[in-house]
Amino acid sequence: MPKLQDLHLDNNRLLSIPPGLPQHKNIMALYLNDNQIAHLKDGDFCPQIDDPMKSPYSRISLYGNPIPYWEIEPGVFRCAVDWIFIQLERPN
Fold first, then answer.
1. CB 62 within 8 A of CB 88
2. How far is Cα 82 from Cα 59, in angstroms, rounded to an integer?
3. CA 10: distance to chain centroid?
4. In the chain, how many domains are there?
5. Backbone dihedral region of 27: left (phi > 0), alpha (psi from -120 to 50 degrees) or beta?
6. Domain extent at residue 37
7. Higher-pLDDT residue of 35, 85
8. Burial letters 2-32, b for 16+ CB under 10 A, else e
9. What tens digit of pLDDT does each residue of 19-75 get?
10. Can you name the residues that pair with 86 across neighbouring β-strands?
11. Residues 68 and 90: beta-carbon distance below 8 Å
12. 3-class SS letters over 7-73
């Protein structure tokens, strides 16, 4: 699916970010709401080596996941357009 730009993986009981996601060069909006993702690590969203062919993310939504935002490493979202488009929320 080389032309895929929006990926919705909401409500899938995911425990982590799906492997291989950084290799999808055209995904710009990613929705992972209401899963069970508790940790994010460098390389989950962005290729380890900057790839000029990778479209930057315009939106990453992680609502409803038990992610402690204070533990997120600074480089995790380095291939996002701006932090303002990254949505985190503490689950109730």
1. yes
2. 9
3. 12
4. 1
5. beta
6. 1-92
7. 35
8. eeeeeeebeeeeeeebeeebbebeebbebbb
9. 989 889 999 999 999 999 999 998 899 888 878 888 899 999 999 999 988 889 888
10. 60
11. no
12. EECCCCCCCCCCCCHHHCCCCCEEECCCCCCCCCCCCCCCCCCCCCCCCCECEEECCCCCCCHHHCC
Residues near 88 by Cβ (< 8 Å), separated by ≥ 6? 62, 63, 65, 67, 69
Q: Take residue 19 and report the two structure tokens written for it.
A: 């492997």
Q: What is the mean pLDDT of residues 68-83?
A: 86
Structure tokens at 42: 């460098």
Residue reference for tokens 């996002």? 80
Residues 6+ positions from 11 with CB-CB distance below 8 Å? 33, 34, 35
Total residue count of the chain as it appears in this document: 92
Residue bearing the bigger pLDDT, 78 or 50? 78
